[in-house]
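Q: Hi! First time doing this. I have a protein sequence and I read that you can turn it into a structure. Is that right? Here it is:
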Amino acid sequence: MPDLFADPAPPPAETAPLAERLRPRALGEVVGQTHLTGPEGAIGRMVAAGRLASIILWGPPGTGKTTIARLLADAVGLRFVAISAVFSGVADLKKAFAEAEAHARAGRRTLLFVDEIHRFNRAQQDGFLPFVEAGTVTLVGATTENPSFELNAALLSRAQVLILHRLGAEALGLLLDRAEALAGRPLPLTPEARAALIASADGDGRFLLNQAETLFAVDLPAPLDPAGLGTFLQRRVAVYDKDREGHYNLISALHKSLRGSDPQAALYYLARMLVAGEEPLYVLRRLVRFASEDVGLADPQALVQCLAAKEAYDFLGSPEGELAIVQACLYLATAPKSNAAYKAQKAAWASAKATGSLMPPPAILNAPTKLMKDIGYGAGYAYDHDTAEGFSGADYWPEGMTAQIYYTPVDRGFERKIAERLAYWEGLRHARD
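A: Yes, that's right. Below is the predicted 3D structure, encoded as structure tokens:
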């Protein structure tokens, strides 16, 4: 069995960056990804078997994707070739495949590591297929984006997607321990500032080590406290791509927190989006949708509040107008919830597609011409306002189609009153029948 703690590569030069000098030299040294590299993990099992399948490593920046790819090649005895989709084109790919074929004929297979693989277009991704299928290369792609959005289905079907976790505080703390051991001295930080440094890394080990290297490079008279650290180091901006995975994760978290009637969590995710640069009008559009989908007629004012927030934001701009967005968010989170209107729409749309062009009853058809009146359009129409209850109980369904129930109000909020009203009308209808 291959040794996960073997030392196959020479150490980097002392002048190399700290992150490079601390790069793991065996899979067992990789932090925070034991669900993959451990004995029961997918990578651990592949290494133990001595056979490596093509894989896609999906995870946030600084979680060890490149390191794992390098160590995999060493662990199973493959030639390692790395290219970046940012800097490489078709010519680079052709050269890499030609060299891999030459080495394959000599009996040595190649692990081709493609960093930022999602940046290759669909045609370029298709170019990998014949070489992966033939076994010319074992492909290891790295991406920070959701592979199901960014990679071809054909390529995904030939590779196993492995998800790397954002590094937690324990894993990041271990990286700082290793940095201090290598430097031979502790970081010039109070315990509280050390915790703040770990939090500022936002799960990115490479960023954390770069910050630590900056701290080691200066001679400070006393350890920094959190406030001093904040002025000494520029805090890292949270990862958030408005059209990518982070965008969809946060809007999903906001929507579900609202649905779960948790105003505190909803406000947190709203803040995450707006602080990271999300377009406020996009957030408002999502809140308006939520008002109809998840609150509906349980509180008809929810939609009014959201549209008023949009008007207020248009009038005030940012940052003053963001308070109106907060008000709408809190209103939705604390409103009674009903998806009855949403379910009714789905059911009614399905019926409309299924029934095609059934004619409404003649009594409720418009009759603007004499001919239409002569053939019965509008004949026998019961004018509801002429009845004592303002309700005629007429049959409005097409001939041959039984009455359907699409909308069933819930027993919450204003829909409770709607339910009572519908029950009253149903009672009148039965009495007249």
